[in-house]
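Entry for the shared binder. Reason: the reviewer on the internal report wants the predicted structure included alongside the sequence.
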Amino acid sequence: MLKCKEVVEKADALVDGTPLHWRERVALRLHLLMCHHCRRYVRQLGALVTSLHKPAAPPASDEQVDRIMRNLDQAP
């Protein structure tokens, strides 16, 4: 069975869908079934990756950019 350190090293492949040998996948899944710490780590890593792929806010329109620039130019 894999150790937690090995699971952490392979967690990114599991989260981003990088192909793993079937034996590695089985060993990872078996470890995750038995170790709630690693399950939590992989779940949190997946949430982080998902949130990094989402845009933080919609891009500003040209009008908004112009208004902000005018306000900055007028600031003392």
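Summary line for the report: The first helix runs from residue 4 to 16.
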